[in-house]
Write a structure and sequence with these properties.
The protein is of the alpha/beta class. It is built from 12 helices and 12 strands. Helix 1 runs parallel beside helix 12. The radius of gyration is 21 Å and the shape is globular. 43% of the residues are buried.
């Protein structure tokens, strides 16, 4: 039993697979594999533990249809043609339930950084601009008692709601496909329509999955309906917002600021105008980047690999229909 791992992962996960009798090959070069390289390596292995951002499309899956299991080192699986994998009877696993706290912390960090222009003010120090200032120069805005709107109130949104109510006594509103009764009971969250979410939120934080329905949801039409003094946060998937429209909305004063842990496209180019805006904070997709979270993700992926190679159901499949 041989697994190809596309990046260096937590050693605990590698040890777990080896103890289960799996031969592990890790890609050690600090670059993404080209599609043909990935195919070449997979042809000599029975399983793939994938920690990349490239597409695992139908062509890849048709070519590597011998794979007994694909384990993603991520919660999201929008880069995988799941239907093709299912057609080929390849179980695909992900890592749900372990990064809620870390991702919510990142959204909270962005919310705070944007509200106080923290990244911009830090750049001013680096540029030698910490000197004379007027009392009304470069002021931020307070989050105390403001309204936090959450688009996609699941586990991550719940954790953000907990933090926001505890620290800033924020009012929580949300828009989901269905009501979240736990959030309503625990945090007094109010379900609202999408247009109401846009109109009422002082901070609007995105925590939905990227699907055909959510792609480019936050575009010019949406930004026009938001408060001029509001903050847009996206720590979910960059494809949920239209980046050119976001830049225009900030330049035109449709919204006050933005905090992004994900960009569209990703990675962001160094000359992107968002990086120089005073009320914008950008992070390089570090939502799950803690030792604890990345280790837990690797362990779940490893368990998916071992189960798949033993012809057992994956603990966390994204296409459980392969078993029926």
């Amino acid at each position: 039993m041989k697994v190809f791992v596309t990046k260096t992962i937590a050693p605990e996960a590698v040890a777990f697979m080896k103890e289960a009798g799996v031969e592990v090959t890790e890609w050690k070069e600090r670059r993404e594999l080209e599609p043909e390289e990935l195919i070449g390596h997979c042809m000599n292995h029975n399983a793939l533990l994938y920690a990349g951002h490239g597409k695992l499309d139908r062509r890849f899956l048709d070519t590597c249809n011998h794979l007994k299991v694909i384990a993603l080192h991520s919660v999201g699986f929008d880069n995988v043609d799941v239907k093709a994998a299912t057609d080929l009877q390849i179980p695909v696993g992900n890592t749900p339930g372990v990064l809620s706290a870390a991702t919510a912390e990142t959204a909270f960090l962005l919310m705070m950084a944007v509200s106080r222009k923290a990244f911009y003010m830090h750049r001013r120090i680096l540029n030698g601009e910490w000197g004379f200032s007027e009392p009304m120069d470069n002021l931020g805005i307070s989050l105390q008692g403001k309204t936090l709107g959450i688009f996609g109130l699941g586990k991550i949104g719940m954790e953000l709601a907990r933090q926001a109510t505890a620290v800033y006594n924020m009012k929580i509103i949300y828009h989901n496909r269905r009501h979240n009764e736990e959030a309503e009971h625990t945090y007094g969250a109010a379900y609202v329509s999408f247009d109401e979410l846009l109109a009422q939120s002082d901070v609007l934080s995105v925590h939905a999955a990227l699907t055909p329905e959510t792609k480019n949801t936050f575009n010019t039409q949406a930004f026009r309906k938001m408060k001029p003094g509001s903050i847009f946060i996206n720590a979910a998937r960059g494809g949920i917002h239209q980046e050119d429209d976001l830049i225009a909305a900030l330049n035109d004063g449709l919204i006050w600021g933005a905090g992004l842990d994900v960009t569209n496209p990703e990675p962001m180019k160094a000359d992107n105008p968002l990086l120089k805006m005073p009320t914008v904070a950008i992070l390089p997709h570090i939502g799950s980047a803690t030792v604890e979270t990345r280790t837990a993700m690797a362990m779940i992926a490893a368990r998916n690999i071992v189960a798949g190679l033993k012809n057992e159901p994956l603990p966390h499949p994204v296409n459980p229909e392969v078993y029926s």
